[in-house]
């Protein structure tokens, strides 16, 4: 995420958080403020953590960069880890994928899959640790199915007591990435460059 892409990223993440937490729309300015502060703080963690953006380029779109389709954050190691990660807590010394969202009108088009695969490819290049973690809320069946199809397995689930804190229960999921054998394997691993571009 470049500095000039911060505002569109804040908008996308804020709308997603308000939707997922079932908050009234009037919470959007507050959530946007908090997300913007979070993203500025996370920029200090580069290169130990990055935010990737995915853009959709329409065939008749000309030379523009396209429409922001989704975003995902990657923490590569302990220095890039969040200070207060959600529970169940992932190991701080392992790569962690979080805050993935896709623009609502563009969902169910493979964008989340491409963001996930781009995250895994970047982790393979930036980290020697092959165990990658992420969280998935128990109520989110579509993302859960995507993560399972991608090879992630549940390693731990929140206690039912988190409901007392008005939080959704979450699964901590793990995938062991294969060790890439060469650069060609990294390039051939599944994104469709005609439709989705992902960049840091």
Automatic annotation (TrEMBL):
Q: Which residues form a coiled coil?
A: none
Q: Which superkingdom, per the lineage?
A: Eukaryota
Q: Which GO terms describe its molecular function?
A: acyltransferase activity, transferring groups other than amino-acyl groups
Q: Where are the transmembrane segments?
A: none
List residues of the N-acetyltransferase domain: 8-178
This chain's protein is named N-acetyltransferase domain-containing protein
Q: Species name for this entry?
A: Linum tenue
């Amino acid at each position: 995420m470049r500095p000039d892409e911060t505002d569109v990223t804040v908008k996308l993440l804020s709308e997603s958080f308000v939707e997922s937490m079932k908050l009234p729309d009037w919470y959007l300015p507050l959530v946007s403020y908090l997300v913007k502060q979070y993203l500025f703080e996370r920029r200090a963690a580069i290169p130990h953590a990055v935010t990737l953006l995915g853009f959709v380029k329409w065939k008749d779109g000309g030379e523009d960069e396209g429409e922001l389709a989704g975003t995902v954050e990657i923490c590569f190691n302990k220095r890039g880890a969040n200070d207060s990660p959600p529970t169940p807590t992932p190991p701080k010394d392992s790569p962690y994928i979080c805050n993935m969202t896709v623009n609502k009108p563009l969902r169910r088009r493979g964008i989340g899959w491409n963001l996930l695969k781009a995250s895994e490819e970047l982790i393979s290049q930036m980290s020697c640790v092959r165990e990658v973690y992420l969280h998935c809320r128990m109520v989110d069946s579509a993302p859960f199915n995507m993560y399972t199809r991608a090879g992630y397995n549940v390693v731990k689930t929140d206690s039912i007591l988190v409901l007392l804190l008005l939080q959704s229960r979450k699964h901590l999921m793990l995938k062991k990435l294969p060790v890439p054998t060469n650069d060609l394997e990294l390039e051939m691993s599944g994104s469709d460059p005609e439709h989705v571009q992902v960049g840091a």
